[in-house]
């Protein structure tokens, strides 16, 4: 979508009533036939636009894609999401966002896609990303913190997403699986992948990648036991632009608090209340070893607190958690 | 320098005696006049090459630049430095190396420059990088460790450089200033800037940037109190290619040991023996606060151990150290 088309869409979404063709001509310094071409372009992208002689144009149907014009009406936060770059298809929004961040894109910039051809989860695993149904987006952050603190962001984002999901679906019983997933009914609903570029003393940028299974109605056979969607859990369809905005609205104040507080202490009660692994026996697979124990909570630095069979407390800062006597 | 020119240079450096023009023709499938053109190119870059009818070509003088052909004869390590990309001038070898790493350059690849137009130290500060005298190079690593361990690499590299410098200049009294500088006579001789791209569980790549003031004979007035060079400290001139190779030769075994050991325990005695700050009263400036205390050592995770005025032990993982009652 070119710049003027996007701006015309923004104006149409901002006004519930008809907008005269003349007003659009004046606003962009273009002819009536040029306005008409932009309207046709928007219709070809799925927007329903009424055109009535003497009154002008009125938006009567959105596409439900996570584009700036459809997300902005729902944004209440101040900095995040003011600039959303949307792709119908991209390899991975994290790859795109890392490139933009390296070029200097400001904090709060978002890359969103309708579909990813190479969506990824942690450790290079793939994240299935079909078009038209789910949310795949990446948020660029520039926190002035040493690099060792950045892994805490994964849990903080998970808390914000959990808050947003529960707000929009009151029946949903979703749990946060340390450190980066949200599950419902034991199946994956959402994943977070934070990537950063840093030196020890300072963080150049962080890219927070978020995938949420929103309206997907079925999963391939090999994922049916391990993945679910908001639609499958609640029977409702959700507005993707509204949900994206809601995640940003919930995350921005948590992020600001975290920058001030220097750790996760302020959000620990929430994280522990909704922790899938709390009091469970788990195995944590790390790059070179596995650690076993019973989960006793989360430290203010985001580490999982395990109690070993010998009663010792172990702090685990990274790894893949598996419930014992389960394949999850 | 094009590929064949570089390969002819490699052959000439490998053989102390004359190499016949015919042998070079055969080796590269080129004509005698083509060989002659490559020889002229090498001479134009500063190489002294004797040409004697009936005997061939003999290298009688190197340029002393950190190019692959001049570094390789001194390399004894197995993986580091086998692939050196040399630039007469670049913005910053770290910027160049990060771009190469993002494209998949293998571990051990090195970017070296004769001169940097935008050389940087920690926290975005500039690193003065005049041509012809010093070493500026960046090494690409791909350690299979969680991102929280990467800051330890800075101290490990500092130890390797310290070993290399002391090996080549037995009179030099150099000290390691936690976490990333080497000083002689209280002035900066060398700096290390590690940058990484990572997710919490795994490190995609680390770029270790190293600047060593080697043969620089004078510094601008504003740096004379804070910077020095190997030449100024020892009165000797040093071969830059040999010194670069020596740093890699010392670092590779330390790095391999670190990957196995999982922490810096094995090198702590060395780090503490040569620690500038040991037993000193210091202030550590961090992004948001300052910490004061007396240095009691280094932890196996690379943190500085401070004893506060109240006798409490404080572990500091990042920041800029200043000796109290000093401006350093």
Automatic annotation (TrEMBL), chains A, B:
GO function terms (MF aspect): ATP binding; biotin--[biotin carboxyl-carrier protein] ligase activity; DNA binding
Function: Acts both as a biotin--[acetyl-CoA-carboxylase] ligase and a repressor.
Pfam families: BPL_C, BPL_LplA_LipB, HTH_11
NCBIfam families according to UniProt: birA_ligase
Annotated catalysed reactions: biotin + L-lysyl-[protein] + ATP = N(6)-biotinyl-L-lysyl-[protein] + AMP + diphosphate + H(+)
Family: Belongs to the biotin--protein ligase family.
DNA-binding region(s) in UniProt: 21-40
InterPro entries named in the record: aa-tRNA-synth_II/BPL/LPL, Bifunct_BirA, Biotin_CoA_COase_ligase, BPL_C, BPL_LPL_catalytic, HTH_11, WH-like_DNA-bd_sf, WH_DNA-bd_sf
Single GO biological process annotation from the record: regulation of DNA-templated transcription
Annotated BPL/LPL catalytic domain residues: 69-259
GO cellular component: cytoplasm
UniProt keyword list: ATP-binding, Biotin, DNA-binding, Ligase, Nucleotide-binding, Repressor, Transcription, Transcription regulation
Domain of life assignment: Bacteria
Name the record gives this protein: Bifunctional ligase/repressor BirA
EC numbers on record: 6.3.4.15
Residues that hold biotin according to the record: 92-94, 116, 120-122, 188
Gene3D superfamilies for the chain: 2.30.30.100, Bira Bifunctional Protein, Domain 2, Winged helix-like DNA-binding domain superfamily/Winged helix DNA-binding domain
């Amino acid at each position: 979508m070119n710049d003027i088309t996007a701006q015309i869409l923004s104006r149409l979404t901002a006004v519930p009533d008809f907008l005269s063709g003349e007003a659009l001509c004046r606003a962009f310094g273009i002819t009536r036939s040029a306005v008409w071409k932009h309207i046709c372009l928007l219709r070809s992208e799925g927007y329903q636009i009424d055109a009535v002689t003497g009154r002008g144009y009125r938006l009567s149907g959105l596409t439900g894609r996570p584009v700036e014009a459809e997300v902005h009406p729902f944004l209440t936060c101040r900095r995040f999401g003011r600039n959303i770059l949307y792709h119908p298809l991209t390899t991975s929004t994290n790859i795109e966002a890392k490139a933009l961040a390296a070029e200097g894109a400001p904090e709060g910039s978002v890359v969103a896609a309708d579909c990813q051809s190479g969506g990824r989860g942690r450790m290079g695993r793939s994240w299935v990303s079909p078009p038209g149904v789910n949310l795949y987006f990446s948020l660029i952050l520039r926190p002035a913190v040493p690099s060792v603190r950045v892994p805490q962001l994964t849990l903080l984002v998970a808390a914000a997403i959990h808050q947003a999901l529960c707000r929009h679906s009151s029946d949903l019983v979703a749990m946060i699986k340390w450190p980066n997933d949200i599950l419902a009914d034991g199946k994956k609903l959402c994943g977070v992948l934070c990537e950063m570029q840093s030196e020890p003393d300072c963080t150049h940028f962080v890219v927070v990648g978020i995938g949420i299974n929103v309206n997907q109605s079925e999963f391939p056979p090999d994922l049916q036991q391990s993945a679910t969607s908001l639609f499958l859990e609640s029977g409702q369809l959700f507005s993707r632009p509204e949900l994206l905005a809601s995640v940003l609205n919930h995350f921005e104040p948590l992020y600001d608090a975290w920058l001030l507080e220097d750790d996760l202490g302020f959000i620990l009660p929430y994280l522990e209340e909704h922790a899938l692994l709390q009091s469970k026996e788990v195995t944590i697979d790390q790059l070179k070893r596995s650690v076993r124990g019973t989960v006793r909570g989360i430290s203010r630095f985001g580490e999982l607190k395990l109690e070993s069979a010998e009663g010792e407390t172990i702090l685990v800062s990274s790894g893949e958690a598996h419930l014992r006597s389960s394949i999850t």
